[in-house]
Amino acid sequence: MNRHDLFGQIPYFWPDLNDEEYALYDCLVYTQDEVDRIREATRAVDAIFRKANRLLRTLPDETLRLLGYPEASLPFLRDKALPQETIIGRYDWIVKDGVIKLMEFNADTPTFIKELFDVNRYVTTAFGLNDPNANATAELKTELRKAVIAAWQRLNRDGTPKIVFTSHDDNIEDKWTTRFLQETLDLPSEFVPLDRLLVDVDGVYTPSGERVDVLYRQTYPIEHLVDDRAPNGDLIGIRLLELNQAKHVSLLNPLSAFLMQSKGVQALIWELYETDTYFDEAERQVIRTHLLPTYLEADPFLGQSAYVQKPAFGREGDSVILYAEDGVPFHKEVLQTYAAETAVYQQFIELPTRTTNTVNGPLATHYMIGCFCLNGHPSALGARAGSMITNNQSYYLAIGTPTHEGD
Fold first, then answer.
1. To 5 degrees, how large is the angle CA 370–CA 371–CA 374?
2. CA–CA distance, 214 with 43 (Å, rounded to integer)
């Protein structure tokens, strides 16, 4: 089976993006023990983030501003709407020389879902490997249903909920990721593009006038939503958050997921670790083992270590800069969309490298491991391969395990 045949059999997938190769005809092989270790790290670190979220809800606005949260989001950040802090989050790991270190946590609107929960099995089968994500879609269905039930019960309404999934209609990755979640939920629901939702003073409505109870916005970030305006200038994004807060609609992921999204949270966790406050010794051991030193300024690294500057709410490597320990930059991403926003500074460890098979032949790539966490439960994992910084030009690389131990 060649690349075209492999990916051609998968419905509603995008093996190429912007006329460039995205999904690789290749597979990274990990032992089951290595997969288990990544998942255990994910489970342990997720507990740290969930505990940090409880603290974040008690902090004053001034502190939240320092961590990079948009001013318009502050009135909504302490709303604990659901028992779940987040439904679908993704931890991005450096897995190298037996060490597993966290780069960042995409708690609110992670993509890479269709690839790991669905496509991975096709690739591993083609390469004669086991799919480590074989049970992940069933786990996803369970957590989606639990979340929708909790979101519906929060509204305290009678009858059957109107469930709507939404994304930008012109972005194939966003749209088919969202449609995959809708298909996995397997309950009566509707897909409505973002620009066709009607956000009124008393609720959110479909184009046909049906009132929306649960609105799933997997790919629509809150930091963009708060700036959204209607053609007449109305702050339509803020209105949506107000409707959610007033229980006229329930948003998924909940706002508590956005609270964990800022990379400033990693700086807060590291400060609490260094000052030996809030976390017990077992939690401190998890932080020591799996988190990288992260601060809101670069000073601790000068003369000590190379470091990376990241925007608190950046995505796809945009605006990332790498510095040597003398403070001189040695790599800067071309896109600097978030350059003026709050940044964090994190110890730099170079990603591991491998020779990867591409349509243009073997290519030396760096790769990171993404592992999803579903309401506290580690789940599907896979790799992104590309340059020194994982960005929107990085490839999707499947992960498989040997069919027999020792292979």
1. 140
2. 28
Q: What is the pLDDT of residues 57-111, one digit of tens each?
A: 999 999 999 999 999 999 999 999 999 999 999 999 999 999 999 999 999 999 9
Residue type, 183: E
Orientation angle between helical segments 32-56 and 281-290, nearest 10 degrees = 120
Task: Check the CA dihedral 235-241-244-245 and report its sign.
Answer: negative
* Local structure of residue 248 (DSSP, 8 states): S
Q: How many CB atoms lie under 10 A from the CB of residue 327?
A: 12
- Burial string for 100-135 (b: 16+ CB within 10 Å, else e) reads bbbbbbbbbbbbbbbbbbbbbbbbbebeebbbbbee
What DSSP designation does 83 have?
A: S
Are 84 and 315 spatial neighbours (Cβ–Cβ below 8 Å)?
A: no
Condensed to tens digits (0 to 9), the pLDDT of residues 275-315 reads 999 999 999 999 999 999 999 999 999 999 999 999 999 88
**CA 240, CA 246: separation in Å to the nearest integer?**
10
Q: Return the DSSP state at 292.
A: P
The H or E element that residue 355 is part of is strand 353-358
Alpha helices in 191-323 (DSSP H): 222-225, 236-245, 255-261, 264-274, 281-290
For residue 325, give every residue at least 6 positions away whose Cβ sits within 8 Å of its Cβ, in sequence order, or none. Answer: 301, 302, 303, 304, 305, 306, 307
The residue type of 76 is F
Question: Encoding tokens for residue 227?
Answer: 């700036």
Identity of the amino acid at 68: G
Number of H helices, E strands in the chain: 12, 20
* pTM given for the model: 0.97
Residue with tokens 């209105």: 239
Q: Which residue has the tokens 């700036």?
A: 227
DSSP notation for 99-166: EEEEEEEE-SS---HHIIIIIHHHHHHHTT-B-TTTTHHHHHHHHHHHHHHHHHHHHT--S---EEE-
Please give the torsion angle defined by the CA atoms of residues 227, 228, 232 and 234, in that order, rounded to the nearest 10 degrees: -60
Show the tokens assigned to 28: 């990274």
Cα Rg of the chain, angstroms: 21
Q: Which ranges in 275-355 belong to alpha helices (H)? A: 281-290
Q: Return the DSSP state at 88.
A: E
- Of 353, 254, 315, 333, whose CA–CA distance to 50 is shortest? 254
Instruction: Specify the residue for token string 């940044």.
Output: 343
